[in-house]
């Protein structure tokens, strides 16, 4: 059985102080142990979140990382730095980073390898643009991204990796995919992993859906056999709604 993961992606929202208030609300909530809950926050809020959430079972993640361990990379943060801060997860290849910060399949692969080598759990984002969907290229695009991101990983590394299927047109737009379409693509991603690794790895890898998930629609996604949770942007900014999402995923 795969454990569902609900990961909040705060993007460029919340100060350390705001993160502490959010964590205080989470700690009051009755969160189900059978769901992995993770908050992916801006770098500056991570130490405060780690301090607040250690021992609660709620994980803390970053939203990006550099693939080198250290060096002349002004403005970047490395895997050892995140590990030293007590971070456990990192989002890699979010479509906003691919679109605005020149993230490529190649850098995504380097970052995934660096994260796994350094003991972080990568949440790797893949997904088609609206134009690609309209041109019937969804599966081709997603297969290419999944294969590139996981190139050179061992089976054990792949099993630890979380894939987030996020159709770009559904992110932050309020227009979620239908659960059936998301299931079709997530099932295709699992098949891609089976072709690249083997069926056992594919059975174990967790695949989230992301794109305008909120408390009102999460049930339809969670019910799908190949969807193991959600990566959530907007609806993760409010503690009450994040708590509802985690509770709905059990
Ligand atoms: C995201 O940022 O990964 C995301 C899915 O955003 P939203 O939930 O706001 O669509």
Automatic annotation (TrEMBL):
Keyword list, A-Z: Cytoplasm, Gluconeogenesis, Glycolysis, Isomerase
Pfam families in alphabetical order: TIM
EC number: 5.3.1.1
GO biological process, one term: glycerol catabolic process
Record field: catalytic activity: D-glyceraldehyde 3-phosphate = dihydroxyacetone phosphate
First-listed, main subcellular location of the protein, grouped into a coarse class: cytoplasm
Annotated residues for binding of substrate: 9-11, 172, 212, 233-234
Localisation: Cytoplasm
Gene3D superfamilies membership: Aldolase class I
Pathway(s): Carbohydrate biosynthesis; gluconeogenesis; Carbohydrate degradation; glycolysis; D-glyceraldehyde 3-phosphate from glycerone phosphate: step 1/1
GO cellular component annotations of the record: cytosol
Enzyme type, top EC level: isomerase
Residues forming the catalytic site: 94 (electrophile), 166 (proton acceptor)
Alphabetized InterPro entries for the sequence: Aldolase_TIM, TIM_sf, TrioseP_Isoase_bac/euk, Triosephosphate_isomerase, Triosephosphate_isomerase_AS
Keyword Cytoplasm annotated: yes
GO molecular function: triose-phosphate isomerase activity
Tree of life domain: Bacteria
Subunit structure: Homodimer.
Family: Belongs to the triosephosphate isomerase family.
Entry function: Involved in the gluconeogenesis. Catalyzes stereospecifically the conversion of dihydroxyacetone phosphate (DHAP) to D-glyceraldehyde-3-phosphate (G3P).
NCBIfam families: tim
Full protein name: Triosephosphate isomerase
Organism: Thermoactinomyces daqus
Recorded name of the encoding gene: tpiA
